[in-house]
Design goal:
The chain is of the alpha+beta class. The radius of gyration is 42 Å and the shape is extended.
Length: 449
């Protein structure tokens, strides 16, 4: 018989699923305006780990400062990175000696491949995700960085979010410098996939074709569906194909060739600082690395010289013919000219005068007709009106008349630079084809390393 407690149990209600609010997080470079919001995220753990810090000064002097914000531009996390440790007793210019003497490191850490985290704050509920996203952003933004260090005082310990990312380094027994700090390290390969560069094979066709089709189908339409496989099969001593691989999958492709027209490039570009893209040769000692310019005087043909001289004489004759003297006493009562418009009066002054209206084009153009047209094409009224309108000038300006007639173009000579002759073999190659997945485009520099 069932107990009374079991019989009194009410049927269980179905549980409602727990809704998780998703936010779009944006990683960007920190600005000085973010300082007030960053200071609000400072906690007691932050001060124990990094000490009291001037946030504005930190943002301005940091090599890289990353801020995470949501859709409402609310700061969710921040981190600042420098190229030297935040240890007071260590010289920022010689920290490599301190690191090698204080900790056991198998890799060669230099200022070119190493950054130090000087500050980190975030909202408590997003600290783990914010720390991981900032570290990934830092490695993606600076492809040359392979190590990120965190120096913490010995009486403190990094918060849980940083403890998951940074691992403590082993201290040497005979260490004497800066005993009050512990060093933690974070490696690139733990957060960002490492690209492996190798020679391409025909089997990579299936992995690379979708990448080509997502960006452009021009090569497929031009050379066919299997153009990539044919290009890989055509490799020889002068042409090679390289592939960037991540966990066994090809994500990038590059085709290079050493068939370069070095002579044409030297004619078009200044390549003397690069030794003409050629290998040094013992016969190159006579090459002058300072380019000289020699002027080539190209005399005009006899017929062209005659045309130029005749054009000049015609211009001078026109100017002399059109120089007229204008006196104020030549005006009569029967004919008056006002701004180029002619007014004719007949009979006595009591009779109504008859107005002769000019053309619409002449009235609209006004004085501009005298500058746009030559002296022969202007009407007499426009000539007399234009001459009377200029007060205090007794003759037409010779400069304005010469400006109206265009002068023939005379070439003053060409310039040619002397190209040095290089006897060495070409020392350059060309990239025929290159493509990489968008997720790894910041890592394309690995093809050249």
């Amino acid at each position: 018989m069932a107990s009374s407690k079991d019989s009194m149990k009410s049927p269980s209600k179905p549980r409602t699923p727990h809704t998780v609010s998703h936010q779009v997080i944006n990683a960007r470079r920190t600005e000085s305006l973010d300082a007030p919001a960053i200071m609000q995220l400072v906690s007691e753990t932050t001060q124990q780990t990094f000490g009291l810090v001037n946030v504005v000064n930190l943002i301005e002097k940091a090599v890289l400062a990353v801020t995470l914000s949501n859709e409402n531009e609310e700061v969710m996390g921040h981190a600042a990175f420098f190229d030297y440790p935040n240890v007071p007793d260590v010289d920022p210019a010689h920290w490599e000696e301190w690191l090698n003497s204080a900790c056991e490191s198998k890799a060669a850490c230099t200022p070119l491949n190493t950054l130090f985290m000087h500050y980190f704050v975030s909202k408590p509920e997003y600290s783990h995700g914010a720390a991981g996203e900032i570290i990934r952003t830092m490695f993606n933004a600076v492809p040359e960085i392979h190590f990120c260090f965190l120096c913490v005082p010995s009486n403190a310990y990094p918060e849980a979010a940083l403890d998951e990312l940074f691992k403590p380094m082993e201290r040497l027994d005979d260490v004497q410098s800066s005993p009050g700090h512990v060093v933690f390290v974070c490696h690139r390969h733990e957060h960002v996939p490492v690209l492996h560069i190798r020679h391409a094979s025909v089997e990579d066709h299936d992995d690379l074709t979708p990448i080509f089709n997502r960006q452009s189908d021009m090569l497929k339409m031009t050379y066919g569906d299997f153009f990539l496989a044919e290009l890989i099969e055509a490799q020889d001593n002068n042409m090679h194909c390289l592939v960037a691989e991540v966990e066994g999958t090809a994500v990038g492709f590059m085709s290079i060739c050493n068939d370069v027209n070095v002579h044409l490039l030297n004619e078009c570009f200044e390549l003397v600082p690069f030794h003409g893209l050629s290998k040094p040769h013992h016969d190159d000692h006579n090459i002058v690395h300072k380019l000289k310019k020699s002027r080539i005087t190209s005399p005009l043909p006899q017929k062209q010289e005659e045309r130029v001289s005749s054009a000049k004489s015609q211009d001078e004759d026109q100017v002399e013919d059109k120089e007229v003297k204008v006196t104020e006493g030549e005006k009569t009562d029967e004919q008056k000219s006002v701004d180029g418009d002619t007014v004719v009066t007949e009979g006595t002054a009591e009779e109504s005068p008859t107005m002769v209206k000019p053309k619409l084009s002449e009235a609209c153009m006004g004085d501009s007709t005298s500058s746009l047209h030559s002296a022969h094409s202007m009407p007499e009224s426009a000539k007399s009106g234009g001459s009377q309108h200029r007060e205090g000038s007794g003759r037409i300006s010779k400069d304005s008349q010469l400006a109206a007639s265009p002068k023939p173009f005379i070439s003053e000579g060409l310039w040619r630079r002397e190209l040095p002759e290089y006897h060495g073999k070409p020392n350059a190659f060309s990239i025929q084809l290159f493509i990489i997945d968008e997720r790894y485009e910041m890592r394309s520099v690995k093809f050249y390393l």
